[in-house]
Amino acid sequence: MDFRRVKDYFSWLYYQYQIISCCAVLEPWERSMFNTILLTIFAMVVYTAYVFIPIHIRLAWEFFSKICGYHSPISN
Question: Transmembrane segments in this chain: where (predicted)?
Answer without folding.
Answer: 35-57
